[in-house]
Design goal:
446 residues, binds protoporphyrin IX containing FE
Length: 446
């Protein structure tokens, strides 16, 4: 009885805090437990913390666990039927259609574009007075947005990026919070004022997205593995082109899925490095040894092993996509826990990546855990920054390479230090960001 009450209290507390900040809401006990069943107002929610259970839900039985529709409601208004939220045959067709755009053979070209855009940002930094301050999450977001637009759509965003960001910020302000109504599974038709504001923001966002698509059509792209060309030139078995609204949804999805995550990773890495000088020193030594004073190329990527471990460890402690919500479409059982059809199944990579049973000193920033021989001991399904199974991140290799190359370029020549006294608090909403940004002083590294 006491434990039932404790569970109910935990669940209620969880829901209340989750509305503001999902990662602060997880009770301490969850970081030790393998499977958690919550029951609230008749809704059954199972939280899976067991690596074999994660594999079950995301990989081996993924067909029984589609993305939870209520949870994705916030994204659907913006992304329509795009890859991130669609399901079933439509998702499969679209995923197959765009996969050539992230083929490893394309990575060298992407690396060159990433480095070029990175150099443009660093040139802007050089032009500023020594020791200036920026919120690095903003600079990195501008950078990665420009990169995704150039490599996926062949479009230089330039100043237009601000229009997209303003619209997106307005959208997040109306939809970013996990709505209580959604958490409790209340019917979708219930009016929610935030939706109207959200729709207005989408219309502003769409003006730029439509311009990108129109430019792609006018350019008559001949590179048939280019993302936008794959959408524009697509023909189904009956020879019909892709519906223009779906082209719009996919462009919006790749734009959003493909930049914010990488930008946040660079932000968290910059902050972790300045608070861990020994790691920073070793990282700078590697980068200077591998690159000397020249710009990186794709050939350097496999040689930047410690840099990659720093990025992987950053993604463990601060996974930008920090929660996976699924809903069981059939009765099932995971590790002896009954999962009746309709159960909401949640995997929090934030909890999983800091779980006491799967990680030694989980709170410690220790990139070496991703280097051999220690890396071999890591539980495969206790580490899912890019997800797993059929819905694994489409841009996994691209995003990782991008973060490694950009981090190498930044730390070689620049020292970033947080504004003294600035509070850094992870805020788990749609993505996991620092609540008040990361204002950092940027100075040349001696
Ligand atoms: C560090 C960078 C990145 C991280 C941490 C990340 C993380 C993730 C995660 C965890 C998922 C799976 C979500 C789920 O199963 O519910 C996902 C999906 C996705 N990501 Fe990424 N991502 C990153 C970069 C990128 C990039 C650069 C692209 C651009 C191509 C991209 C495109 C996508 C797409 C399209 C999906 C949906 C895939 C599907 O459902 O079939 N991501 N990402």
């Amino acid at each position: 009885m006491a434990s039932l009450l404790r569970d109910a209290r935990d669940a209620l507390r969880h829901l209340m805090i989750a509305r503001d900040n999902m990662v602060a809401a997880w009770p301490k006990s969850y970081y030790r437990r393998e499977m958690i069943v919550e029951k609230l107002l008749g809704r059954r929610l199972v939280i899976v913390n067991l690596p074999a259970g994660v594999q079950h839900v995301l990989v081996s039985h993924a067909d029984r666990y589609p993305k939870s529709p209520s949870n994705d409601q916030a994204l659907r208004t913006l992304l329509g039927q795009g890859l991130f939220v669609s399901e079933g045959p439509l998702w499969l067709r679209q995923r197959r259609a765009v996969t050539p755009a992230v083929h490893t053979g394309r990575l060298p070209g992407y690396a060159a574009a990433i480095v070029q855009a990175g150099e443009e940002m660093l040139a802007r930094w050089r032009a500023r007075p020594a020791g200036f301050e920026v919120d690095v999450t903003e600079d990195f977001t501008l950078l990665t947005a420009e990169i995704i637009s150039r490599i996926m759509f062949g479009f230089r965003l330039g100043e237009k990026v601000h229009e997209l960001f303003d619209a997106f910020a307005a959208y997040q302000a109306s939809h970013g919070r996990v709505h209580m109504a959604e958490l409790l599974g209340l019917p979708n038709w219930l009016p929610r004022p935030s939706r109207l504001r959200g729709r207005r923001a989408v219309a502003r966002f769409d003006r730029v997205i439509m311009e990108i698509i129109a430019a792609g059509r006018a350019r008559n792209v001949t590179d048939f593995e280019e993302f936008l060309a794959l959408l524009i030139n697509f023909r189904d078995e009956q020879g019909r082109p892709m519906d223009p609204s779906l082209v719009r949804d996919e462009v919006a999805s790749i734009f959003l899925a493909g930049h914010e995550t990488t930008a946040i990773t660079l932000g968290w890495a910059s902050w972790l490095l300045e608070t861990h000088p020994a790691v920073e020193e070793r990282l700078v030594a590697e980068v200077r040894h591998v690159l000397g004073s020249r710009a990186p190329t794709i050939e350097d990527y496999p040689r930047l092993t410690y840099t990659r471990a720093v990025v992987e460890e950053t993604l463990r402690l601060y996974p930008p996509v920090h929660v996976f919500s699924r809903r069981a479409t059939a009765d099932d059982e995971i590790a002896g826990v009954k999962i009746p059809r309709g159960t909401f199944v949640t995997i929090s990579s934030w909890v999983l990546h800091r779980h006491k049973l799967w990680w030694e000193a989980p709170e410690k920033f220790d990139p070496e855990r991703f280097l051999p021989p220690r890396a071999e001991k890591n539980e495969r399904f206790a580490y899912i920054p890019f997800g797993a199974g059929p819905r694994i991140c489409l841009g996994k290799h691209l995003g990782l390479m991008e973060a490694v190359l950009l981090l190498a370029m930044i730390v070689r020549d620049w020292r970033l230090t947080l504004r003294p006294g600035h509070p850094v608090e992870p805020l788990g909403r749609m993505t996991l960001r620092p609540r008040l940004g990361l204002p950092m002083r940027i100075a040349p590294r001696p």
